[in-house]
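Per reviewer request, we include the raw input and output of the structure prediction for the construct analysed in the revised manuscript.
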Amino acid sequence: MASLMELEEEQPRTPSTKLDLLEKEIEDLCRSVANGEVSEHELQEHFLDFSSDQLKIVVNRMIKGMKVQVKQDEQHRPSIRLRDPMIARKLSTIEDEDEIRTYDVIEQVGTKGIAQRIIKNKTKLSATKITKTLASLESKQLIKAVKLQKNTQHVKSYVLFHLKLDDPAAGTHTVFGSGTSFDTQCFEAVSKLSVVFLKSRMKKFIAEKSRALPDEMIAFNKSEATVDEVLQDVIKAGIVKADINEESIEAVMKMLELEGKVERREYNEPEGPIFRYRYHSSKSDRPEAAIPCVGCPVKNLCSMDSPINPMDCPHFDNWINNFNF
């Protein structure tokens, strides 16, 4: 059966007064629960006198009217949360779909705040467009800019206008816990998946470079990945059941960087600095750095017609034997 939360063309077959009454009852139900969220299953259980089609019509009408926010839990089960009437009215007047999409991304993170670069990655908007979109939402007092501390830096981030940003002293939000409740197995699983992903990026980059023409340039950042790209790959693997987020991946990257398994590179983008990570390559992954000739103290004496030559060099033989992508 199609989900009640799936938007489709409204086809009312019930008197509008009955649908209006159902909409009001759904609003009352949302207000009556502690977190303001009502799942699809709860709607069907609570309104047994209405058909699934009638519920779908009303829920879709509420979504289109910006009265409710659609959310998903860890198992991707949909639910709705009632928005403040004033916010709903403001959103209903917005015609720019990019503004609605951007607002949805910021709304999903609640009081945690979200960095501009992550908003850009999630919405797939250009740097110029996301800057204009955020400015427009700020002018409507739907969102506000805040300074979110990430490691030792303050990153420009955004939160809904009526919400207060979480206390930075409370620490970074990750799914791994802290102290004696720290989930070591989950952390290690995410670490391994992250390393495998970054290593595959590096191998693909080396393979492309080896096939490239002499004058063909291969962008070095193809060997790197953003936190969001690592996150999407970890989620796609389907091994980790916890609700992994960007903050969790950043915590993993920080530890892998300290362990020397990944390298972090900073790039200056219009929306602010962005960090990309790459696998800290072993000798087999970076053959150009592992060639023994590079640091050989007698390389100036080496030639094919000399007693010191590549054919008789044990170090060169060892490198060739271990040359593996």
